[in-house]
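Q: Sequence in, structure out?
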Amino acid sequence: MKINELPTPCYVIDEGRLEENLKILKNVEDRTGAHILLAQKCFSGFCEYPLIAEYISGTTASGLYEARLGYEEMASRFGRENHVYSPAYREEDMEELAGICDHIVFNSKAQLLKYKTVIDAANVAGNRGTALHSDAYSAGSTDISDYSSNEPSDVVSSAVNIRVNPDNNCILSDMHYRYSDKDCSSLDNGRKHNVSIGVRVNPECSTQEGHAIYDPCSPGSRMGIKLQDFDEEIMSMIDGIHFHTLCEQNSDDLEITLHAVEEKFGPYLHRLKWLNMGGGHHITRKDYDVERLIRLIKHMKETYDLEIYLEPGEAVALNAGYNVTKVLDIVKNDIPILILDTSAACHMPDVLEMPYRPPLKDSGEAGEKLFTYRLSCNTCLAGDVIGEYSFDHEIKVGDRLYFEDMAIYSMVKNNTFNGIPLPAIAAMDRNGDCRIIKEFGYEDFKMRLS
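A: Exactly. Output:
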């Protein structure tokens, strides 16, 4: 099936472009030793987690459900890391989080004090949730049955390891593990699990312009502990600190932020095990300065003897997806208006929230090409307008349009307002062949309402 044969509306994950992004990220990992984690808040298409696990170190979550997804589909299957940060945790969630996460990052001293004993108890128990007892074994081994027992075994350090499902002796995938003895607890082997605790800090350094809604360092921000509230009691309970100040930014802004982090928290960094630089790094964008990023990571590692973590979301799936839509009708009110079977409010919420104008294949700005249209949607919301676009040819009812860069902040944020159906999800391989991953219907709308 080709992309023009898919049902509409439909999200399409472009696996070729996804892998190109992952290769760039893996290059950063290989050259720096940093751990790059997929921020699932941006992209949670777990059908692609086997591919993602071949290139980067794991996933990070913003709460229990994302953490559970990362654990089930990445950590327990492929031995990858599973991290979580939330502005505040619920009491009923913490015990499970402590059982399935490698790092738990707190937003305040009060939350750290409240849940430290829960994590300590989980670390004493040493068991990772209801993990599969799948083991890693050296590529030099040939007898898979030696490693398929339900009893956990030690991890053998090797440039290449293979994951085995002990339930059926099947090799899950070839992996290039880079874990040292220091951090091999992230392998889900059933007895080395130990939760590492951190806190989020606010370096009070804003580098964003025009994205106040996404600026964690804006005045009155709830995100992170400021230096004036950071103390020795906090230091006695943590292994690392986390900051997240960027949004779709280049590494020059990271450099500015790191200067602030070193200025404010430098005296503490030498006493920590790790530093998490959060997300917002547009590493796979064409104009991104990767060499500067590598230099910055190496500086922090070598100066403070830290393990470095980055949590990009967009960089993993940037430009690696489409939203295929069909023109249902054309109405005129000063300008021809295309009514589509997709919706900004329902299927591309960031178009209205940021706001921004999504790229559309074979189109131009209003007036740039011969035929200009306003693109709107089939909801009752008057403001459900995507933008104005121009084309070389006249658009007709039934034509298909292809919105680009739709793998990120789309599937994870969509909704069924107005009873509008959710788009199907498909994946397209390097040959342009598509397979439908998931289709949605009336029950998906109804089940959320009563």
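The first strand starts at residue 10 and ends at 14.
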